Amino acid sequence: MDVIGLLPRLHLLRFPVGQAYVWRDGDELTLIDAGPAGAGASIAELAAPLGRVRRIVLTHFHEDHVGGTGELAASTGAEVLAHRLDAPVVRGEAPGPPPVFEDWERPLHAEAVRHLPQGEFARPPQVTELSDGDLLDFGGGAQVVHVPGHTHGSIAIRLPRHGVLFTGDAVAASPVDGAVMLGVFNLDRDQALASFRRLAALDTDLACFGHGDPVLGHASAVLRKSADGYPAAP
User: Fewer C-beta neighbours within 10 Å, C or N terminus of the chain?
Assistant: First the structure.
C-alpha cells in the first residue's frame, strides 16, 4: 500500500487495484472505501498514529473497495456506511450484479482480477444505509450524492467547505495519460454517464477517484470538459 498526502487532512491509499482515502478531523478519521481483502490490517496500522477510525464510507460494493472493510471495522469499531441499494451486497446477504462489459473492457477486467485476492473475505455484519442527500458528520458536513450506473447504489461524497469530491468509480483517471474519463465496468452506461454529468456540474476543486490520480485543482472544469466529450443519450 502506498500512502500519498494530498492535503494536511487528506491522504490517498493506493493498492495494486484501486485506492481509498483517509480524511482527518482532529483525532477522528473517516475512510472513503477500504481497499481489497487483506488491506484492513495495513490501514489500521497506518491510522493508529493519526487517530481513531470513526467510520468507513463505501462508494459501492465491488471487492477492491470493500474487501478490507470487515477486518478494519472489527479491529477499530468503525461504523460502516453504504447506499441502501448496495448495502445488502456489502453485508453478504445478496449477490452483486456483474458489470455489462464493453468488448474493450474485458481484458482490463481480467487483468484487474488477476491482482486481487481470490476467495471470500470478512463482511461487516452491520451497515448503516444511506440515501441521496444525506449529510454525514465529517469534513464540515459531507454530502451523499447517489450516482447510479457503475452499481445501482454507487455514491460520491462531497465536502463543500473544502472543495473536495470523492467520486468512487463513477469517474476515473486513465493510467496511461491521466485523462479524466467515465469509470469502467458499469451496469448501465447511460445511467453512468448521467451520473458523471451530475458530478461534473458540482463546484469542485479537488476530485478524488477510485482509480487513477486525483485532480488537484479546478476539478470542476476538468470534469465538465471530459463529460461534455461523451455523446448525449438518444
Answer: C
